[in-house]
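Can anyone check this?
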Amino acid sequence: MVKKAIMQLGGRAVIFNLTGVAGVRCKVGAGAAAAEITMDALEFNILASGRSPYVEGRTNAILSGDTALAAMALTKTLVLY
C-alpha cells in the first residue's frame, strides 16, 4: 500500500509535519520535497483513519509548496488502526 501511494506522487515527495505531543516530521516519496502538510498529529490520525471527512479534516491542515500535490497526498492517505 505504501509503495502504491508513493508511486502516485509521480517521483516527488511530501513532508508530513505533524505537530503536538505525538508530533513527527517525515518525508514520503522520492527526491526533494515539493510540498508540505502541517497539522496536529491527533487531527491527522482522525483524518487518516477515516473517522473525519476530508473536507472537515482539511480545515485543520496547512498546505505549502505544491498545494495540489499536498492536497492529493492528504486525500490518498489512509492509515488502518
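Reply from J.R.: I decoded it. The radius of gyration is 12 Å.
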